[in-house]
Amino acid sequence: MSSATMLEPLDLSALLCSRVCHDLISPAGAIVNGLEVFEDADDEETKEFALNLIKKSAATVSARLQFCRLAFGAAGSAGAQVDLGDAEKVARGAIEDEKVKVNWGLPRALLPKNRVKLLLNLMLVAGHAIPRGGVLTIDPVGQGESMGFRVEACGLNARVPQAVASLVAGGEEGQSIDAHAIQPFYTGLLAKTCGLTVSIESDGEAIIVLAR
User: What is the CA radius of gyration of the chain?
Assistant: First the structure.
């Protein structure tokens, strides 16, 4: 896969940072709001509501930080391997909620760091296909350190914008990359580094994101 869109390293890092901040700003803001409500509360019911909001939002921030550290960060030295069991834990913590469920079909194994980063980013791409919620099913393609991944997103009106398919393929000439587009573009870069190609297909009521 050759990239038709090029980004300077500083632009890539800045856009990824913007993406991470975007994911964290909402629950972080909810913590601040909860503290303000707690400080102004005159009754125990309101204080309890504020504390529950703070606890839930803090848990969300922690889960998303752990996910972002593994999906976008260094997560160990060059050539490091990551346990798929750890990947499952952070993926469920950040993605699974009352709207989205995860069916994890991967074996417990150690894989190269970039391949695990690719997996988590594939889950994000697939998750965006079901904005109303649904089920993400993750299965292996092949085995061992050369393992690829199949992520199926099944939900109401599941669809992937055309721009996303081109972004994971490296982008088109003249296509702009902003903080919203950087994640699928980065997914394509990871796939290229792993020697894999990502395809996105519609299969009835499901969207299939395949890296092989």
Answer: 18
Does a structural domain hold residue 1?
no
User: Residues of 138-148 as b/e, b for ≥16 C-beta within 10 angstroms?
Assistant: bebeeeeeebb
CATH code for the domain in which residue 42 is found: 3.30.565.10
Within a domain: 3:
no
Q: Is pTM, for the whole model, over 0.85?
A: yes
Distance CA 104, CA 88 (A): 7
SS3 label, residue 159: coil
From residue 16, alpha-carbon distances to 54, 112, 175, 184, 209 in Å are 27, 21, 17, 11, 21
Full residue range of the structural domain in which residue 48 is found: 9-211
Does residue 23 sit within a domain? yes
Number of domains the chain is built from: 1
Distance of alpha carbon 4 from alpha carbon 134, whole angstroms:
33
- Per-residue pLDDT in tens (0 to 9) along the chain, 212 residues: 334 567 888 999 999 999 999 999 999 999 999 999 999 998 999 999 999 999 999 999 999 999 999 999 876 555 689 999 999 999 999 999 989 999 999 999 999 999 999 999 999 999 999 999 999 999 999 988 899 999 999 999 898 877 898 888 877 666 788 888 999 999 999 999 999 999 999 888 899 999 99
